[in-house]
């Protein structure tokens, strides 16, 4: 089959579309990455060029092609208990948080990928909340990609995905099932019921849907890095509004709120508190 080449003009159209609709800012040098990630899809649709693909994408009113595009362009890499230092911090802060909140907690995993992040939050709370009290806990987990959200809702992980998970967690919160030549780990219903999964685009989403909630903690980790500064700024302002008094924002360790942390106090690397 003939190799598809992404022409500069075609790349610029896709680059602008991706920026406007997903928020991801692709530098000009990403032309080869876009070509590599989209070529298979363009061929599967029977299209002869990336230009024809762009026309198809723009004309598609069903949202299906946008879904394919976001899944192919975004990086979905994630893992259980990623950013170990943040969990240590949370452990030390939890008693204060619970005292202030009188047992009611609202947490948002704002780009949850295939679910390892919200399930880590749920396991963490199960482990460290005092057992002699009842708590009203809701974890909202959102992502732009319905493909990864489906995986998150299914909550089935390979032994490779669970490789870094302590055996205590595996035994307490997963059931093990043989599948073909491997073992799969199914998340327990007790974790699933703590989480509400929803599709939400951080850049173009309707934030009025979230206005009634005041979050105690927002996890927005390893996604802002793909956005440009103005988009990051707008997002951080949104988070500020949605957080309750003294609420926390956790970002990825390779990200920073420099120049835009108005109203946020830096507590530790990549952990910010609303003043
Ligand atoms: C690298 S993963 C990070 C997952 C998790 N937060 C972590 O730190 O392990 C980035 C996720 O951001 C999502 N994403 C990219 N652009 C987005 C947008 N505009 N709105 C919401 N999610 C987005 C991707 O679909 C992907 O699942």
From TrEMBL:
Pfam family, one: CheR_N
InterPro entries xref list: Bact_Chemotaxis_MeTrfase, Chemotaxis_MeTrfase_CheR, CheR_C, CheR_MeTrfase, CheR_N, CheR_N_sf, SAM-dependent_MTases_sf
Superkingdom, taxonomy of origin: Bacteria
Alphabetical list of Gene3D superfamilies matching this protein: Chemotaxis receptor methyltransferase CheR, N-terminal domain, Vaccinia Virus protein VP39
Keyword Transferase attached: yes
GO biological process: methylation
Key words, A-Z: Methyltransferase, S-adenosyl-L-methionine, Transferase
Reaction(s) this enzyme catalyzes, per UniProt: L-glutamyl-[protein] + S-adenosyl-L-methionine = [protein]-L-glutamate 5-O-methyl ester + S-adenosyl-L-homocysteine
CheR-type methyltransferase domain sequence ranges: 1-275
SUPFAM superfamilies in alphabetical order: Chemotaxis receptor methyltransferase CheR, N-terminal domain (SSF47757), S-adenosyl-L-methionine-dependent methyltransferases (SSF53335)
GO molecular function: protein-glutamate O-methyltransferase activity
EC number(s) recorded for this UniProt protein: 2.1.1.80
Name listed for the protein in its UniProt record: protein-glutamate O-methyltransferase
């Amino acid at each position: 089959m003939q190799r598809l080449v992404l022409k500069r003009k075609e790349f610029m159209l896709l680059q602008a579309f991706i920026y406007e609709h997903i928020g991801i800012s692709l530098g000009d040098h990403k032309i080869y990455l876009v070509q590599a990630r989209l070529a298979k899809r363009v061929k599967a649709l029977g299209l002869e060029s990336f230009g024809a693909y762009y026309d198809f994408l723009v004309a598609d009113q069903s949202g299906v092609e946008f879904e394919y595009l976001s899944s192919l362009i975004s990086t979905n890499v994630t893992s259980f208990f990623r950013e170990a230092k943040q969990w240590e911090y949370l452990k030390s802060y939890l008693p204060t948080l619970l005292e202030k909140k009188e047992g009611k907690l609202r947490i948002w995993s704002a780009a949850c990928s295939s679910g390892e992040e919200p399930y880590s939050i749920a396991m963490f709370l199960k482990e460290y909340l005092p057992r002699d009290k009842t708590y009203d806990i809701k974890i909202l987990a959102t992502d732009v990609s319905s493909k990864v959200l489906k995986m998150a809702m299914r909550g089935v992980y390979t032994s490779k995905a669970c490789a870094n998970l302590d055996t205590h967690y595996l035994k307490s919160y997963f059931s093990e099932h043989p599948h073909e030549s491997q073992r799969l780990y199914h998340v327990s219903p007790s974790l699933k019921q703590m989480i509400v999964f929803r599709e939400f685009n951080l850049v173009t989403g309707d934030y009025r849907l979230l206005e009634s909630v005041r979050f105690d903690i927002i996890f927005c980790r390893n996604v802002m890095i793909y956005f440009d500064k103005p988009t990051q700024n707008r997002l951080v302002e949104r988070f500020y509004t949605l957080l309750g008094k003294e609420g926390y924002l956790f970002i990825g360790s390779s990200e920073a709120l420099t120049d835009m942390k108005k109203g946020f106090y830096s507590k530790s690397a990549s952990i910010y508190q609303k003043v």
